[in-house]
Amino acid sequence: MNIKRVALTTNYNGAVLNRANNVYDPTDLVVTVSSAATCGSGKQICVFDQDYGNNNLYGWVACRAGSSGANPNRTCEHQWVRFNLAYTPPSYQRLACHELAHTVGLRHGTETASCVFPNIAQATTSALTTHDRAHINARY
Ligand SMILES: [Zn+2]
């Protein structure tokens, strides 16, 4: 999990670093976090925040390049995480945890005690469950 924070504002810069170090690094993932002015290319997760307008999304993940395989085993080498500054999320930490979960293949679940619960306003945590971590550790 190679995360590059691309000119993030303070709230998302801190939340991404915090969740990477405290939620994802303790799993079997190898986590690196860096900052840069531009995204560049290669196998990485570039994280951006901008005012993307009123699209009803706090954030989302897209595959920029290097997609292979088919669902549910599709992989993507170069991903973009977008945080929408048009909205203030219920929790920056929870939203960062949520979008980073998608980058490692976790889909929306039914456990409110997971940041991958689809409605982050109703999720009760900014962390992953034992179940989420088991999926990550099985894959990585
Ligand atoms: Zn989601």
Element-by-element helix/strand order: EHEEEEHH
Indicate the CATH class: Alpha Beta
Strand order within the widest beta sheet: 2-1-3-5-4
Q: What structural class should be given to the helix and strand makeup?
A: alpha/beta
Q: What share of the residues lie within helices? A: 25-40%
How many distinct domains?
1
CATH-level-4 superfamily name: Collagenase (Catalytic Domain)
Bound ions, cofactors and other small molecules, one mention each: zinc ion
**Tally of separate helices:** 3
- Average pLDDT confidence is 95
Instruction: Note the beta-strand portion.
Output: 25-35%
Q: What's the total number of strands?
A: 5
Let me know the largest β-sheet.
5 strands, mixed
* Outline type: globular
Distance from N terminus to C terminus (CA atoms, Å) equals 10 Å
CATH architecture: 3-Layer(aba) Sandwich
Uncertain segments of ≥5 residues (pLDDT<50)? none
How does this structure look, described?
- The chain is α/β, with parallel strands linked by helices.
- The protein has one domain (2-139): Collagenase (Catalytic Domain).
- It is built from 3 helices and 5 strands.
- The protein has helices spanning 10-24, 92-103, 130-139, and strands spanning 2-6, 32-36, 44-50, 59-68, 75-84.
- It has a 5-stranded mixed sheet.
- Strand 4 and strand 5 (75-84) form a beta hairpin.
- The protein is globular and about 35 Å long.
- Zinc ion (ZN) binds next to helix 2.
- The site of zinc ion (ZN) has 3 residues, from helix 2.
